[in-house]
Structures are given as structure tokens and as C-alpha cells.
Amino acid sequence: MPQRLRAQAQQPGQRPKPRPAGAGLRAWVELLRLPALFTVPGDALAGAAAAGVRPNPRTLLAIGSSLCLYEAGMALNDWADRAEDAVDRPHRPLPSGRVKPAAALAAAGGLTLAGLALASRAGRRPLAVAGALAATVWSYDLVLKRTPAGPVAMAAARGLDLLLGGVASGGDTRKAVPSALTLATHTLAVTTVSRHETQGGSPWAPLTALATTTALTWSLTRDTRRGDTRTGADVSRADVSRADLSRADLTGDDRRSTTGTSATGTGAIGTGGRSPEHAPPGPLSLRHPPPRPRGVTLNIASLSGALTTLYAVTSARPLLHAALNPSPPLTQRAVGGGIRAMIPLQAALAARSGAPVTALLTAALAPAARRFSRKVSVT
Question: 20 lies in a domain?
């Protein structure tokens, strides 16, 4: 009897090891890079803040659309790179056989359709932006990724994602363009570094990205100082309006109509539809606005400065290490740091736009992204 058959006869109960429970789910988590999802909602939130509106139900539709399109790009990326990953990263879900290529391609198609459907619920303009975003994602993964236009395409995708939030939320899209360009510039630098993450050997890419991070940090800090007066004035007007409404409630005139300030700077609230010059005297007449609340202005500036510093530290530290030693592990770490740095960057953009609550909500996603990225790689 051959030795192999004799060994089988001695161990008749031996069977192939079953797959661990949850192995299939773990493979899809790796394929879709789920920890990177925490970097997506901030695009729409920063876009809404930059466009001058508060988050609303249509902003949630934009976030849902962005999440679907982002995950479609992740699945399509691994499907397009399956031959290369078989050599450089055989542990990835597709080359290791844990996920079938056809399933990954089907997931990419289904998630794309879901993202477009959610955008269509927000209106035609959001659907148009989402369509451009989807086309950019598919073009990048299938055609442009290995060309010089690859990083530019990825940067355009991230900028369009921020604009999607502004358009869907109903704000002024033109105001969101500077924030979209800032996020796109950061994405361009990170994507350029990612082209060397499997083989390393290039210190110039992380050095260029480090210079980009420095330039963006300086730009955000400068813009925050310039926007202090504007932001404070806006907060002041909001506080004046709330104070006037409170006075109306105290005097029992809440059923009267309201008139705005005239061209000469005078105005009255609660005049019963009469013109300002015929308004009755009383505590509701407002001829001179109260002083601007400097504390609120300083708080917004401080918040924006703190978030900008967090962005700089999150992005710059691993980039510096990769520049000093451009090995694949350190380069991959620099790419992961650049991806996670998008969250404080989005929050800083929201704070710069005068939306501190939106900025704090966005920044709250950073700890979760960092925690889960230790278990599943975002690259």
C-alpha cells in the first residue's frame, strides 16, 4: 500500500480544515476597505457647509450616494488589479480566492446603481454630479490608474464628492469650489504616493506630498484669519435675530409681522405690517446693532486652527518617515495616514466655512477610522 494511502487509513476521520466562521464576511470587509468609509461622510458635510447651508435630509442622500460610489470603486479597484495583486499582494481577497472576481465586479455594478439612485432622490443636479463622479471612478479603475492622469482622476473624484454634498443640500455650489479644490489637492498628493506603496523606493513622492500638506496647512490657517471678521459678523446677525425674537415673545407681539432693516441701517420688528417709519416705539426698535460677540469668533478660529493642526500632524508624520525610508511598509503607512487625514481636513474646511457643529461631527469620525484601520488596512 502506498505511504499516502496508508496514512489515510490510519487517520480515517481526518478531513480538510473548514473555513473559520465569518471568513467570508472578513474577506468582503477587506475587499471594500470598510474602515476607509469613515472618510466619506465628511465630503458631503464639508460641501454643505462650504455652500452656506446646514445639513438636511438631502445631505443624507448625498452621503448615502457617496458611500455607495466609494465602495463601488473599492470593489472595482481590486477586480482590475487582481493579476497584479496575485504577484505583489497575494493575501488580498481576490488572488487568495476568498472572493470571486465575478462577485466583486457585480458588487461594483450594484453599488454604482445604488449610489446613482440615491442621488436622483435629491434632484437632477445631484444626479448629474453623481453621474460624473461614477464615470470618473470607473475610468480611473479601468483605464487611467496606471497612466499619468491617474492621480488627477482620483483627485477629481474626491472634489466631485464634496461638490455633491453642496449641490444636494441646496446651497451655492460656487462657494464650495475652493473647498473642493483643497480636498482634491490633498487627494492628488496621497494618490501619487500610493503608486509606490507595493514596491517603495521613491522618496520624492512622499516629499512632494509633505510639501503639499505644508502648503495646505498654511492656506487654511491664512484663510481662517481672514474669515474671522466675516464669520463673527454672521454669528452676530444670527444672535441679534434670536434676541429680537425673544423680545417679541416677552412683549406678546409674536403674532405681528416682521420687517428688516432699512437702507439707512434702521428697522423695526413687530410693526404689524407697517413701514419702519410708522413703527411704534418700544424695545423692539433696533437702530444700532449690538457689538459683535468676539468670543464666538475666537472659538471658531480656535477650532479651525486645532483641526488644521490635527490634519497636518496626521498627514505629515508618516510622510516624513516614508521620505526618510521609502520602503513598502512605510509607504503604505504614509498612504493610510493621508487617507485618515482627510477627516480633520474636511472638519477644518467646515469650520472655516463657519459651521462649527458640522466640523465637530465630522471630526468625531476620526477616532473610529483610526481604530478600525488597525484591524483592516485602508489601502
Answer: no
CB 107 within 8 A of CB 70: no
- Residue position matching grid coordinates 487625514: 341
154 lies in some domain = yes
Centroid of chain to Cα 228: 24
Predicted confidence at residue 184, as pLDDT, reads: 98
pLDDT tens by residue, 43-85: 999 999 999 999 999 999 999 999 999 999 999 999 999 999 9
pLDDT tens, residue by residue, 307-334: 999 999 999 999 999 999 999 999 999 9
- Give 376's Cβ-side CA count (13 Å radius): 19
**Tens digit of pLDDT for each residue in 118-146?**
999 999 999 999 999 999 999 999 999 99
What was the pLDDT predicted at 378?
A: 82
The total number of structural domains that make up the chain: 1
Look up the CATH number of the domain holding residue 159: 1.10.357.140
> Which residues make Cβ contacts (< 8 Å) with residue 321, sequence separation at least 6?
330, 333, 334
The CA dihedral of 240, 241, 242, 246, to the nearest 10 degrees, is: 100
Question: pLDDT band at residue 88, thresholds of 50, 70 and 90?
Answer: confident
Structural domain contains residue 238:
no
Is residue 67 in some structural domain? Answer: yes
What's the grid cell of residue 150? 491617474
Reported as a pLDDT band with limits 50, 70 and 90, residue 222 is confident
Domain that holds residue 53: 25-230+292-373
